[in-house]
Design brief:
There is one protein chain. This protein has about 140 residues and is mostly helical. The chain has five helices and two strands, in the order ααααββα. A two-stranded antiparallel ribbon has the order 1-2. Helix 1 packs antiparallel against helix 2 and helix 2 packs across helix 3.
């Protein structure tokens, strides 16, 4: 499509959907949200962008193959499973560390966030792989 309005709106929608996805990802474990819904939101923005600009434009933005994103997500989720085991606790037990921030306050990081990040990557990778495969077949046949 060659519409200037759609091109500008798709960029804005992509930025907004990724920001909202990061918000849902970070708020996820203790409140509604998490890796799954964040992955769906980010994928929706990338799909709309790909519908306007093509799949190659999205691949330039992501900079990784979608299969790599899936593998990365699976690795992060498995790491969140095994980190507590190596520390002598039950699998998927929340392990937390606190990083001090310079101006004051602390930043708690834990394995639930690692697991949610893994789920996010898997969901984005799977959805984009499927949609990009379909879009490439349709573009090739047109």
């Amino acid at each position: 499509m060659q519409s200037i309005i759609l091109k500008k709106v798709s960029k804005l929608l992509l930025i907004m959907s990724v920001i909202l996805a990061v918000f849902f990802l970070l708020r996820g474990h203790n409140k509604p949200g998490g890796g799954f819904i964040a992955g769906i939101l980010a994928s929706a923005g990338f799909i709309f962008y790909a519908m306007i600009h093509g799949t190659k434009a999205v691949e330039k933005i992501i900079r990784f193959d979608t299969r790599f994103v899936m593998a990365l997500g699976l690795t992060l989720s498995v790491a969140a499973f095994f980190i507590p085991v190596f520390l002598g606790q039950a699998p998927l037990t929340g392990i937390w560390i606190t990083l001090p921030l310079w101006p004051g306050g602390d930043l708690p990081l834990g394995t639930p966030l690692l697991f949610d990040l893994g789920v996010f990557c898997v969901v984005v990778g799977v959805i984009l792989s499927i949609i990009f495969s379909i879009m490439e077949v349709l573009e090739w046949n047109l």
